Amino acid sequence: MGNYITNENSATLKGKAVDTEKSGGKIGNTLVQEGLITKEQLELGLNKQKELKSGRLGELFIRDGKAAFSDISKALKMQESQTEHKLGDILVSAGIISSGELSDALLRQKKDRKQRIGEILVDMDIIKPEELALALALQCKLPYLDLDSYPIDQLAVHAVSPELAKRVKVFPVKLVKNDLTVAFCNPKDYEAEKDLSFHTGLNIEIAVASENSINKAIAEHYQTEEDDELNKLLLETEPAEIEEIKDIDNQRYDISERIGKEKPIIALVNHILKTAIVKQASDVHIFPEEKNVSVKLRIDGVIHDELILSIDRLASITSRIKILSNMNIAERRLPQDGRAKIKVHGKAVDLRFSCLPTVFGESVVIRVLDRESGLLSLSDMGFLDEDLNKLTDCINRPHGMLLFTGPTGSGKSTSIYGCLQESGFFHKNVITLENPVEFELPGICQVQMKEHIGLTFARGLRQILRHDPDVIVVGEIRDSETAKIAVQAALTGHLLISTLHTNTASDAFIRLADMGVEPFLINASIIGIVAQNLIRKICPHCRETDLEGREKLKAAHFLLEVPEDSVLYKGKGCEKCNGTGYKGRTIVYELLTIDEDIKRAVLKGVSSSHIRGLAIKKGMRTLEQIAYMKALEGITSVDEIIAKFS
Fold first, then answer.
1. Domains plus CATH for the chain?
2. Mean pLDDT, to the nearest integer, of 47-57?
3. Centroid of chain to Cα 269
4. pLDDT tens digits, residue range 609-629?
5. What per-residue confidence (pLDDT) applies to 538?
6. Considering only CA atoms, which of 451, 419, 448, 425 is closest in space to residue 436?
7. What's the 3-state SS for 334-351?
8. Model pTM?
9. What three-state secondary structure class fits 531?
10. Which contiguous run of DSSP H or E holds residue 363?
């Protein structure tokens, strides 16, 4: 123990010395009881105090090197907090132990002064850890907590690092403003209290819980192994410089935050978003299960596992996401939607959030819209030159309806945005109705649908007809009212572009008829239909010949003939494509243009398969044919087209 005493320490000690004198030398007894000095050292100190006839006992111990200032200060604080009864007396009075058991424990303590009386009683199996914690709470006049049933505040948990909680054997349970309630197994550990206050910057409110329950809570709520792996992952990843772009009073402000170091949960969400952007994911799925939270990324149309987290992190993750997307953080029972704009290393990205309550908690899906790389021209999408010319002719028409059909996630919106970038639209009044507005285009009036206030596609379509549009884009025709108004708009001198959910181009005729549109109106309005889908492209870094490609096609009963001299390819899998063998996607489509024969077939009400067969005879390439042509060109693989079309 050190014997160095400063003026500040001396003054502090003298300030408390009055209480020491009034206590009749109890400071020495406290030092002995806590194992800070021996009984013999206490007797020598008392004798020396008598010889000098002055001086405080604590000062004598420090000056002679028998105790450090921190030991004396700790003992003084313990005296201030102690009640009139000792811990052993409390246990005897409560009937938890007998006087004889206390005597046996005191005899054992004489042999090992470093052990506290409570610890000895637990080691002797005389009392349980919970009974010791309750007695300490009574002794120190502090609340006792049963951590198995006490509601844990996740904000409090994240205020204390798992390393610190494990080192000082405490567990945070509640955070209210600047007051952090922490469960201690040793409420007299003032160094731990000071350590917590320093690292958190909060006022520490002490409660008492058993050491076993604290260790159990740390294991359940911190998931130490997971945190080690996650921290390693975050350290290995280049820090994400994310700028959140907020809309306030219809004006846009850039709010830059160096997030990722202040709060672990912010760093985690930040890492998930950056990973999704770097890996060019279109969606992020945060999916709660019974014990875990799965973070998955949809890359090139296929969902891949990215992270597995503890279910205890779910509430914090969803809270952070709701703050980022301006959702109601208190609402957990109803679905919510939100949006945000961020920049990662100066790259602008739009995020669309959807929050859905499930049996295990709230599931979140984040649509990632890269505004800089997401906009493609028609020529970059993968249309064959002949079909590209036909499509360009359609969008240069002064009036009529052009439809893009396909399942969800087939790139219909991307195709429409590609059309809107054509030079023929530069000097026209273009108005769009979208839900949501995925990309903001200069020179185009884009309207966001808000169905919760009554702004639907049908109502918006009626209104924009009064705004003198040349070109109208309707995000989706989903009901009879919208379909009828759209057809009327196409017949009254407007070019209307929209989408339908059908698998083939010919199915669009049947779909509109089912919505109540008369066949003669369908014939008079539609000028072209593009049915499309997306298939994955082979990674150019690991592409190799697929020697079994022809046999695979034959085994799958693929309808197209495979020439004997054809060469097919596949992806082996490498670091560039995360071992999938694929990198990026391309369009497959069928473009159906209208002529008199098609119109007559529609008027007769024939089946969609009959119309499709007629279009094929007139030169329409099917989805399968385009996919096969791209396989022969080495763009996609046999496995991919079999999975899509067989």
1. 7-126 (no CATH), 139-222 (3.30.300.160), 234-370 (3.30.450.90), 378-535+586-624 (3.40.50.300)
2. 61
3. 5
4. 999 999 999 999 999 999 999
5. 95
6. 448
7. CCEEEEEEEEECCEEEEE
8. 0.60
9. strand
10. strand 361-370
